[in-house]
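question for whoever is on the cluster today: can someone run the full assembly for these? four chains, 324 residues total. i dont have access anymore since they changed the login thing
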Amino acid sequence: MKMDRPPHLKDLEEDAEKQPFLPNYLLFLLASTSAAASAEFHATVREHGLRVPEWRVLACLHDEDGQMVTRLAGLALMEQSRLTRIIDQMDARGLVERRSDALDRRRVRVHLTGDGRILAEEMVQRAAEHEAALLSRLPDGKGNELRRLLKEVYRQFSGEAD
Amino acid sequence: MKMDRPPHLKDLEEDAEKQPFLPNYLLFLLASTSAAASAEFHATVREHGLRVPEWRVLACLHDEDGQMVTRLAGLALMEQSRLTRIIDQMDARGLVERRSDALDRRRVRVHLTGDGRILAEEMVQRAAEHEAALLSRLPDGKGNELRRLLKEVYRQFSGEAD
DNA sequence: GCCGAAACCATGAAATATCATACAAACTGC
DNA sequence: GCAGTTTGTATGATATTTCATGGTTTCGGC
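^ ran it for u. tokens below:
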């Protein structure tokens, strides 16, 4: 999604006619910050001929090859049926391949091909570089503080805390 | 988007065959946390007959009625052409209406109708309640800490810091 | 072992998003 | 005030996403 420059939240706050809601709404702050932080790198992703969901799949498989479709969809933040079709395309492009799980034949495991792995490694490398550049814009330590906090909050909100 | 239960990040970390990338990648943590935090409320949104982008538009107009299309698209995290069509639908449903700006006739200002305002107020109320419920799952103060940090980081990453 | 239920993945049909571009209005420098 | 540029919004054609559901395979209680 090609997005314009993010708007400034302050502008909303300046309209004092009544209590503004969004500038302090956590879900909005999370979504906006995520979008603002990702915009640049997502442009890079597209320049490499990938769409964002495809990049997410590559990154997930980079960390753990051969994941099943459902879990991959969860990690890559999309619906299962959408992932199925994205796998179709990535398969047709020779980036991944499906193998059925011998122990549970309902499951389909998605594996990187050689080309897929090369591309995944390159993109992960670029992502890491971009992340470093992003973090360098923040005061020292802020980045790690944010990471720690997000991990903790994710744990709570995703039910991992059970 | 109807999503399954979020996966547990730890699982990725447990695969020690090599350095996992995602569990510490800031953009991934932001996107995953945002998705996990929003999932419940987004279900509520759909139960009220709204899609997420429509809810975002209502929330934006709740804070500042009569915004122009471009800015609304930026705040609601979508492309302009998509917002144009969403406005079409919300207009047809009687939730918003377009008025052209007298001073700059290129601009189209989007206003809540009476019904739109009623729905916006109700949803904002529910969002606030849901947010309170979410925050109550976190240790005291974590929520505010996260908010402060996100605001600061958003400022940097969106270029508002210039 | 059998039966109903649940988990996993794929798919059709309809709705939606995207990209490029068109169109209109407002600026800019002259 | 005019030509060229930029800004703001809409739209057509295409590609994608979604929802509901179908087909398999496994699970659980009996």
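summary bc i know u wont read the tokens: The two ends of chain B are 35 Å apart (CA to CA). Residues 114-136 of chain B form the longest helix (23 residues).
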